[in-house]
């Protein structure tokens, strides 16, 4: 995924910065504890499509 993209996208819930989880190809919002998936290199920034982070994922 393009790192410049990461700088312009924000969490749709809190408008905060997202962290890229390369291993799982997810964008993480630690504030909301949500993980947004990346499909075919395109982040799916929809709260309805996001899943709650587990404690394990938050720790990584
Ligand atoms: Zn957020």
Automatic annotation (TrEMBL):
Family statement drawn from the similarity comment of this UniProt entry: Belongs to the UPF0434 family.
Gene Ontology cellular-component terms listed: cytosol
Protein name: UPF0434 protein SOASR030_22350
One Pfam entry name: Trm112p
Database matches in InterPro entries: Trm112-like
Origin superkingdom: Bacteria
Database matches in SUPFAM superfamilies: Trm112p-like
């Amino acid at each position: 995924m393009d790192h410049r993209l990461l700088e312009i996208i924000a969490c749709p819930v809190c408008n905060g910065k997202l962290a890229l989880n390369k291993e799982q190809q997810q964008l993480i919002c630690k504030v909301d504890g949500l993980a947004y998936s990346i499909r075919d290199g395109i982040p799916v920034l929809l709260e309805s499509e996001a899943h709650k982070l587990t404690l394990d994922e938050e720790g990584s």
